[in-house]
């Protein structure tokens, strides 16, 4: 994991919320350095990745969250029914916001003559449309403690971290109030990305 990765943060928050810190160790790996220890367990070269004692390593945060959730009685991903699809849908939307926000940041760090405004604008529009949908549907996840709500809070935290100038709260009162509550939780406080990164 890296402390700045929002995908890793989803897994780290879940580990804390489910009281599993004594069973899962967190090892720092910088994916862009291509460390052999990471490539050995995840050929995609991305974090997070999870080593298990008795089975193949896992990668991709939705899969790792599903695995972590299976280790505890208190389910943050319902096993079946409408609730399962609601939670997984919100996780997919939150992860999609992250994909767009991370992609946009990569695009913006290129030298100006190599940047594609088309992609930056497309990513921006996708983020804004998704935030609007979340504001509209807030009653479906506000007050819930599950992987869907948690992933949304992690995505909003990432916008604050990497786009401090973003006015995502404007016109999205319910989403802003939802995030404030999550940001106070010990699982969020102890997984804050370092201010200097
Ligand atoms: N879909 C993956 C995305 C993971 C991901 O893109 N992680 C970033 C760090 S924030 C990474 O490792 N990037 C290195 C790379 O793309 O080569 C997940 O949900 O875990």
What's a concise summary of this model?
The protein is an all-alpha fold and 197 residues long. 54% of the residues lie in helices and 2% in strands. Helix 1 packs across helix 6, helix 4 runs antiparallel to helix 5 and helix 6 crosses helix 7.
Main attributes of the structure:
single chain, 197 residues, mainly alpha, Glutaredoxin, Glutathione S-transferase Yfyf (Class Pi), Chain A, domain 2, 2 domains, 8 helices, globular, binds glutathione
Structural features, described:
There is one protein chain. The protein is mainly alpha-helical. The protein folds into two domains: 65 residues, Glutaredoxin, CATH 3.40.30; 105 residues, Glutathione S-transferase Yfyf (Class Pi), Chain A, domain 2 (Up-down Bundle). It has eight helices and two strands; from the N terminus they run ααββαααααα. A two-stranded antiparallel ribbon has the order 1-2. The protein starts with 5 loop residues before the first helix and ends in an 8-residue tail after the last helix. It binds glutathione.
């Amino acid at each position: 994991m890296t402390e700045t990765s929002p995908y890793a943060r989803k897994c780290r928050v879940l580990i804390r919320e489910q009281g599993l810190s004594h069973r899962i160790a967190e090892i720092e790996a910088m994916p862009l350095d291509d460390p052999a220890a990471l490539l050995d367990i995840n050929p995609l070269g991305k974090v997070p990745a999870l080593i298990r004692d008795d089975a193949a390593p896992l990668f991709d945060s939705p899969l790792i969250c599903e695995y972590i959730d299976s280790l505890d009685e208190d389910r943050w991903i319902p096993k079946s029914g409408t609730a399962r699809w609601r939670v997984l849908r919100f996780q997919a939307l939150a992860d999609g916001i992250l994909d767009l926000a991370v992609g946009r940041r990569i695009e913006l760090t290129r030298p100006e003559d190599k940047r594609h405004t088309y992609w930056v604008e497309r990513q921006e529009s996708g983020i804004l449309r998704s935030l609007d949908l979340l504001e509209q549907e807030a009653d479906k996840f506000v007050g819930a403690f599950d992987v869907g709500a948690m992933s949304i809070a992690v995505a909003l935290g990432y916008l604050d971290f990497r786009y401090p100038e973003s006015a995502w709260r404007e016109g999205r009162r319910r989403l802003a109030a939802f995030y404030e509550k999550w940001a106070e939780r010990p699982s969020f406080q102890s997984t804050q990305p370092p201010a200097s990164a």
